[in-house]
Amino acid sequence: GCGGVASFSNKAVVSSFGIAFDIDGVILRGTTPIGNSRRALRRLYDDSGAMNIPFLFLTNGGGIPESRRASELSDILGVKILASQVVQGHSPFRTLLKRYENEFIVATGKGEPAVVMSEYGFKRVISLEEYASQFKNIDPVAQYKRWTTEQELNCSRNSEKIASSHIDCSQKVKAAFVVSDPVDWGRDIQVLCDILTSGGVPEEENGQQPPLYFAADDLQYQAAFPSERLGMGAFRIALESVFNRIHDKPLEYTSFGKPNPFVFSNAEMILRQLLQFPTPGNVGTEDVRLPSFKTLYMIGDNPLVDVKGAQQAGYPWFSILTRTGVFRQRENHTQYPADMVNLMILYSLFLLLFTVV
Ligand code: G3P
Ligand code: MG
Hints:
By secondary structure, this protein is of the alpha/beta class. The protein has helices at residues 37-42, 66-77, 97-100, 113-120, 128-132, 150-164, 185-198, 232-246, 261-276, 303-313, 346-353; strands spanning 17-21, 28-29, 32-33, 55-58, 86-87, 104-108, 124-127, 175-178, 212-214, 220-221, 229-230, 254-255, 295-300, 317-322, 340-342. It has a 6-stranded parallel beta sheet. Strands 7-6-8-9-12 form a 5-stranded parallel beta sheet, with helices on both faces. The protein has a two-stranded antiparallel sheet with strand order 2-3. The longest helix has 16 residues, at 261-276.
């Protein structure tokens, strides 16, 4: 049904809708809030600071654990974001825990991919960077790479090392995970090709390709630069093209993140839990029927990812396309038209839609 009326915080606040915010190109550009997104988010809380309207962030980005992303977002946006309100591209990798919990796996991407995976519970994960460093001359141009400051490198490498200190790299890699946007495409393409064409042991001959998982497949996304930047989908095309030229069997892979429908059903479940149990710690009580929503708004900037995803997910999703990121046209997108195109900044949109808040 679509009852959606729930007792929320101390005063009985009625909410029949929830909101999923895309991050890049809607809430932030790089680390800078877009327009009045801070003010818009504050409207989702009452005077006592309790959440009025259940909302979460549904991003294809990532590279750090959800708990850390939540505190980063809290600092940038000036509201207290819970870890459960942050769904990143790689968040569904958790569902692969049963299969790989004790298997040797590699993880790559910006930030701390191995730390992300160990937080999910994977016990034998190593970052591709750490893995590559165990093979002499695997990257023939490594000595020319001086673009990372020592400090940055040490910082992220130390925690990655701790996550993988006990791992023996001569064993077979059982799966590779692209957790966030790769930093060193050249090295990653080389080393992933080594792992994937060999069957998991770079110095050996052909074996069956280990499974490869991407957190998302965004061709482009909006960062701090004025025009879009190449995303994980662009990296996937680069890797796939090279792999298919040097290997006789085409690359096999799975992409998670938006626009996959399961991402939206998972978001709906989290929003329902937030509506029922606004404070952390209460989530997951089994015998209570969770409330449902009349409308769930997906506010995104990418028609092919955010709007397509909400459309495929169907009821009760309603897509709103902003013009602050990847999408800039005047008219609605032709292939994946949003239910609404927002010509204004987020805050004005809120005044228009949610005057009840
Ligand atoms: O790297 C992040 C990008 O692929 C998309 O982020 O927040 O727009 O889904 P977002
Ligand atoms: Mg976006």
